[in-house]
Design a protein that fits this description.
alpha+beta, 13% strand
Length: 141
Amino acid sequence: MSERMLTVAAFPTPERAAHAVDELLRAGFERAAIGLFSPDTAPGGSGRSRQAAGAAVADSLAGQGVPEAAARRAADAVARGEGVVTVRAGARDRDAVQIFRDLGAEFLHAEGMDELGYPLDDLPGAIDGARPGDGPGEPAR
């Protein structure tokens, strides 16, 4: 995965998003590589409406190369009062994704991964795009 690409995930509350930031820092990610968006921390400062904060988040993410649809989902999450965390993890993308997955994140954008944070190209045993839960005897997704 490219070091320039962001992994973007939403959390149900800004506090849970802040906890994810703490976990990334604890795992050795650099603060400069991590972003946190919430209604109070969106570009332009606090005191804005949730919708205005969400729009500022969409603009910020789109300017960083996040696809428009993913940037809009992040904006919608912030507008609902949720927290959004970004990380530019470089070679440690999978570590960041695992932290997000362990914390129950909703993946909004992760280059080369599906919406659950699973790699699209190299899942052990994956056949023709099969994912965990797709096989016989496994719970449906």
